[in-house]
Amino acid sequence: MRLRKATRSDLPFILELFVNTVGTVCSHDYSENQIKIWTSVSDNKKEWENKIDQTYFIIAETENKIVGFGSLDPADNIDLLYIHHKYHRCGIGQAILNELEKESKKKNTCELFTNASITSYSFFKNQGFRELQEQRRILHGEEFINYKMSKVI
C-alpha cells in the first residue's frame, strides 16, 4: 500500500468508494434514507474538487486501486476518512490517520478534531481520540448523530 496526495483525476474513484463504503459499512448504524441523504453529497463535485485543492487530501492505493482516503482541513480537523469496505481492519485507516497526524504536527498543532459517525466512533476511540460531545443534526428531515472527538498529538 502507498499513500499519496489526491488529484482531481482521482475524484470519480474517490466518490465511488465514498458511496459504496457509506452504503455498505454504515448501513448497520443508519437507516436507508439517512444513507441516501449522506451519500447525496457526492453529487456536488465542485465541493469535492475544492476539498482536494484546499485541504491535505491523501489516498491509499494498493495494486493501483484506491482503497481509502482522508483529509485534514486548514483548521486541523479530520474532515474525511473512508476505507473501502473490503479493506477494513487491514491497517489502512490507521496509516491514513498517522499521515494526517504527521502533517498536522508539521504546523505545530497540539490537538486534532473530528466529527465521527456512529460507525467510525470506535475506530477513533481506539486511536486515542476522546469524545467531547454527542451531536445531533437534522438534514432533509432526518436526524443524524455523530460525535465531536479530539486527540492530543
Please provide a written account of the structure:
This protein is of the alpha+beta class and 153 residues long. It has a single domain (2-152), classed as 3-Layer(aba) Sandwich (Aminopeptidase), CATH 3.40.630.30. 35% of the residues lie in helices and 35% in strands. It has helices at residues 11-25, 32-39, 45-54, 92-106, 121-126; strands at residues 2-5, 56-62, 65-72, 77-83, 111-117, 130-139, 142-152. The protein has a 7-stranded mixed sheet, sandwiched between helices. It is globular, with a radius of gyration of 15 Å. The two termini are 25 Å apart. The model has no long low-confidence stretch (mean pLDDT 95).
Please specify the SSE layout and strand pairing.
Layout: E1 2-5, H1 11-25, H2 32-39, H3 45-54, E2 56-62, E3 65-72, E4 77-83, H4 92-106, E5 111-117, H5 121-126, E6 130-139, E7 142-152
Parallel strand pairs: 4-5
Antiparallel strand pairs: 1-2, 2-3, 3-4, 5-7, 6-7
Helix pairs in contact: 1-2
Question: What's the short story on this structure?
Answer:
The chain has 153 residues and is α+β, with helices and mostly antiparallel strands. The chain contains five helices and seven strands, in the order E-H-H-H-E-E-E-H-E-H-E-E.
Q: How are the strands ordered across the major sheet?
A: 1-2-3-4-5-7-6
- Bin the strand percentage: 35-45%
Going by helix content, strand content and strand pairing, the class is alpha+beta
Summarize model confidence as the mean pLDDT.
95
Count of domain modules: 1
First-last Cα distance: 25 Å
Radius of gyration: 15 Å
- The level-1 CATH class: Alpha Beta
Classify the fold: give the CATH topology.
Aminopeptidase
Report the order of strands and helices.
EHHHEEEHEHEE
Number of strands: 7
Quaternary structure of the protein: single chain
